[in-house]
Request: fold
Amino acid sequence: MASRRLALNLAQGLRGRAGLSLPMKRGLTTPVSPAVKTQTTTLKNGLTVATQYSPYAQTSTVGMWIDAGSRAETEETNGTAHFLEHLAFKGTNRRTQQQLELEIENMGAHLNAYTSRENTVYFAKSLNEDAPKCVDILADILQNSKLEESAIERERDVILRESEEVEKQLEEVVFDHLHATAFQHQPLGRTILGPRENIRDITRTELSSYIKNNYTADRMVLVGTGGVPHEKLVEMADQHFAGLPAQTPQTSAYLQSKKKPDFIGSDIRIRDDTIPTANIAIAVEGVSWGDEDYFTALVTQAIVGNYDKAMGNAQHTGSKLSGFVHQHDLATSFMSFSTSYSDTGLWGIYLVTDKLTQVDDLVHFTLREWSRLSTSVTEAEVERAKAQLKASILLSLDGTTAVAEDIGRQIVTTGRRMDPAEIERIIDRVTEKDVMDFAQRRLWDQDIAISAVGSIEGLFDYARIRNDMSRNF
Reply:
């Protein structure tokens, strides 16, 4: 728990965005690897091909990152992108589901997909010599999926069961409600799975329309990492994806998805006294991936820190809030987060406590710590936070798939992948003055969104909590 929200945010967008130059001793048989760089090429139809070639890697990851997720849906079609991800592996015009599974199995490869609010991703990891087969399979499932009625009905039941499981995960429920209240009645506020009534009603027509309207070359990036030379992947892309539509139709859903959402100060509370804990997320409007405050927001988040009572080092993490919470036994855990999207974000904290008579104390002292960030931040805590951030970034780059995720997300969102050394320099330049300036502009006396689930009788009303956002000591 201590680093999950930071790790989640980095996994979605920071994989590979920074690195540390560490001195290494080279053994006599270790080859000297040239500097690894990201190369990009844009095909005639607008498809971007991006690679990070490692000549000594024995495995490769190839995948397609698509600038379309649940945010590209309407209220009536919410859940379509995730539904489509499930159907992608159920057979194409060239391969039955069994043939597809056997082909992957015989290569010893891994084929997977996931949907987020802004992206849909299909990727495969294999030995280098099997990368061309993986690209062929990805092209097949992206362009030739059958979407058979029988498969749709089977997956409908699977997704409904998945929805039931998600509803049992309190953290997921709280964050879904946080988005729903912060960006209410807007595409970014909807869930990825969609409401159960939509899952029951989605038809083949809606699935086909989603592909037609969103799987276009100008919104897709084919990524290769590991032992795939750039020129080879460009050739494969030209062979398999040249027929993709070049431009996205300017539908009302597309135009709405590209409109910056309004952040709405509000709260949503679901009291359930059968749940033994109070689970509370509080957030201000955060920063987008391309915002100049992006890394300052992450450093500020790391200063607030994370806490897990079950960890042996809980009281010694360096975070002032962690020390105070542990000393007064106010919470089971908390984790700060800075979640970014293409044009907005959420910056805040997720609190879990079983001290139900002290919920107000926990929230009060948490927001008092936020207020402190506007006036008194020390150089020592900024340096600690920067070191933790750089370590998290480096540790999130574990293997070709992690690197591919970083390249795909960055290019599909911002159009370029920042050089890791550049990211490290940006983080190193963040000072305590920058943090206080960020807090004064983004935290001090700002509206908040609150999502609370469980035994939350002790949580004070919105106006009382909002007043703590401008507390003078």
DSSP finds 18 helices and twelve strands in the chain.
